[in-house]
Every structure is written in C-alpha cells, then in structure tokens.
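Exam revision sheet. Question 4 asks you to relate a sequence to its structure. Input first:
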Amino acid sequence: GVPVLHVRHAGDPGDPLEKGTPGFEIHPKVAPRPGEPVITKTRCSAFFDTPLQEELKRRGIHRLVVAGMQTEYCVDTSCRAAADLGYKVVLVRDGHTTFDTSVLPAEKIVAHHNRTLGGGGFVELGEAERVTFSA
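Answer key, structure tokens:
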C-alpha cells in the first residue's frame, strides 16, 4: 500500500549504463510492478532534471526510504538533495552498495557514507528488517 518509485541511471554512449544495454535495465529481482513509475536520470542526483520531485508532490510524499546503488555517487547525492528539498529521508543502512575502489573496499565506503549521512543529519539510518511503512 506504499508507493514505490524506481530510479535508474542512463549513462552516456559507451557507458556500462547506456540506454539499451543490460546495465541500464532494472534487475528482475527488484523490477517495477505494474503502476510503479520509473524515473530515468543522467546525473548522480535523482532530482536533477527529472520528474521525481513533481511525482512525490503529486502523491503527497514527504518521507523517503532510500536503497540502491552506488553509495558514493547516486545514493549519497540523492539523499543530500532530498534533505535539502525538505524530505525526511531514511537510508537503509544495509540496503545500498557499491564497488571496491583502489582506495577502499566497498564495505568501508558504505560504512563511511552511513556515518557521514547519518551523523551529518541528512538521513535517519534504518536496518532493512526494521524499516516500517505505512500508507
């Protein structure tokens, strides 16, 4: 009974997330159900130059639960943008991920962003099994 909105990234030509490539498609395990909107973005922020904010306003949504990929880019940027726009944001602490880099392994990047976003007042952190929804 709670709206689910999907956001996916469209990369430039040659990018692994380029439209029409497997990387652009939403994984079947989390594929949208009928009626669930899919917002396509081209920048890290789910809000920049997309209809996301208008869709949230139209639905009267003020609280967002965020999960997804890629922690240090899209998840971080979208959480900060949502907080700046006045949304109450719950980041699912164990519901976002990334890739290892030459500097840090993915688990440390995730832990750092949980600490930074949660400790910085941008988000409330919640464990996946404890996040509750109400219509």
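Marking note for examiners. The CA atoms of residues 1 and 135 lie 6 Å apart.
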